[in-house]
Amino acid sequence: MAVLRNDGLRRRRAERKSRSGDYVTEIDRASEAAILEILARRTPGIPTLAEEGGGARGGTRWVVDPLDGTTNFARGFPVVGVSVALLDGRTPVAGVVAGPFLDLEFAVERGRGATLNGQPLPRLGRGDASTAVVATGFPFRIKHRLERYLPVFRGALERFEDLRRAGAASLDLAWSASGTLSGFFELGLGTWDVAAGAAMVLEVGGRVTDWSGGDGWLESGDILAGPPAVHEVLLELCALAPPDQATGQTGPSPTPSRAP
Question: Is the same domain home to 12 and 85?
Answer without folding.
Answer: yes
